[in-house]
Amino acid sequence: MSELFRQITKNKHAYLFLIPTFLFLGVFCYYPPISAMIHAFFRWDGVGDGVFVGLKNFRELLTDDEFFIRSCLNVFILLVFNVLKTITVPFLVAELIHWLWSGRARYAYRLLFIVPMVAPGIVLVLLWKFIYDTHIGPLNQFLVMVGLEKLAMPWLASTKIAIYSLAAMGFPWAGGIGVLIYLAGLQNIPADIFDAARVDGAGWVRRMLKLDFPLVISQVRVLTVMTVLGTIQGFETVLVMTRGGPAFSTLVPGLHMYHQAFKYGRFGYATAIGVLMFLGVLFFTYANLKLLRSRE
Amino acid sequence: MLVRKLIPEIGRHAALIVLGFLTVVPFLLMLNISLKSNAQFYTEFWALSRPIHWENIVRAWNIISSYILNSVIVSGTTVIGVLIMASLSAYAFARFRFPGREILFFMVIALLMIPGILTLVPLYSLVQHLPLFGGNNILGQGGHGLLNSRWGLILPYMAGGQIILIFILRNFFEGIPQSLFDAARVDGASEWRVFWMLVVPLSVPILITVGLMNVLGTWNDYVWPLVVLRNPELRTLPVGLAFLQGEYEIKYGQIMAGYAIGCVPLLVLFVFTMKYFLRGLMFGAVKG
């Protein structure tokens, strides 16, 4: 026991250094998730203790809340599109840049595709909201100008297409961190692998799909995981673009939670949504780890 | 032979120029419209209009500048606090062998598994009912807590932001050669001195990188300031930009000028710290 005490006093600076961190973590990081796990079983308006209602929140969510079910469907649509968006065009752009002859050109293009990332995310979302506008939006104006007025649509105002407009946002999906991550991956591939492929006489499409893509598969996986986790949780874009409308056609679970808490004051119900989404994220992370391990 | 090689190269350039152009089109539109009057906006949408309405920029600046200042205060205070706390903790974890080290470190890292979506609602309630803050009594009742104040952003940002930084900085600090520490100890330097005079100076590049990563996160955050701040004067840049449309009758030139000005601070930061900025971006993305 005195040995332990000696160890503690000897390292008193370590504990001193950790005090601010754990003070902050204790209040703002440990308490909220615990509060969420508890209050998911309560009727709670955010004030005081609330009333224990058992599994009622979860039962309502899974059987009686058509908005929640709709929102899960929507987030699934976004998930499919977003994953496709991160693994296709950014990889293609990285390929195109990587095989350029001149280092200066590589640098210049890299910079060009970084520009959208340097802008605050909200600006891009607001610009796309503008682009999709039915009356003044550049997209419809352009379609009319080139004689395709038949294709001009109320992109965000139609219940049928609004969710797909959100999914397609950011066309041509080339700007973003993906390009940089794939480029870094390609640069790490030893040159002799490519020389071997050249001797083989593999064409560029073949080389790209059969050689380069498998070689950056770990980058693909990182980006996919990031995209999935981000999409499940994200509702900022939907909140700004459509507020979940028209007629809840673009509602996503995160936004449903936001509305339940901050519009209707149903904090207990909202935390139940948060807990379900947490379980979804956890399941996905676990499945991904499993998959990773079985491959290795 | 040369032609056979030249054609794919030209093809690559062509494809990149098309994709690159489409990628920046929204920003080109923004810049073009930002200098138009409403009449020009409606009649000559695509053209570069004359006369140029520079006053859009001035008017937009008058509105946006206070949001930028708010964001600078919030992100600036946060990153200073985060860097101090995270580097101290990371140093403790990296360089001391103290009882409870593993379990405490695990308790920090485990928080990376807690998604923001789980904590958003209870964190709001906590911030509102934080005992003894913002007119609250010891039970957290009676006042508004940290709601509608910058501290309601800064304190949770500081708490949550340090987690990933502790992880990254600990790895870095562990890589500092032991011989340097031994030399300092022989010189009789205290723990504080070792930290400030040895560890911090050696870590400037990584501190800039993770600092930028932290700034990018808080600077771009939209939902938390949206729910915490009621007073429009406290709005951070993203919230201010999102509410621009409602501030006056719709003047597209001014709105776009506002968006353009909103891009400037990060652009300036990027130009001055390009290498660190990109690394910070990558770190920030991968932590997800």
Explain the overall architecture.
The complex is a heterodimer of chains A (about 300) and B (about 290). Chain A has about 300 residues and is mostly helical. Chain A is built from 16 helices and two strands. Chain A has a two-stranded antiparallel ribbon with strand order 1-2. In chain A, α4 (about 65-85) packs antiparallel against α13, α5 crosses α10 and α10 packs antiparallel against α13. The longest helix of chain A has 29 residues, at about 265-295. In chain B, α3 crosses α9, α6 packs antiparallel against α9 and α13 packs across α14. Chain B has helices spanning about 1-35, 40-45, 55-95, 100-110, 115-130, 150-175, 180-185, 190-200, 205-220, 225-230, 235-240, 245, 250-270, 275-285. Chain B contains 14 helices and no strands. Chain B is globular, with a radius of gyration of 24 Å. Chain B is mostly helical and about 290 residues long. At the A-B interface, α1, α2, α5, α6 and α7 of A face α1, α3, α4, α5 and α6 of B.
In short:
Chain A has 296 residues and is mainly alpha-helical.
Structural class by SSE content of chain A: mainly alpha
Write out the CATH superfamily name of chain A: MetI-like
Which CATH class of chain A is shown?
Answer: Mainly Alpha
Largest sheet of chain A: 2 strands, antiparallel
Q: What share of residues are in beta strands of chain A?
A: under 5%
CATH architecture of chain A: Orthogonal Bundle
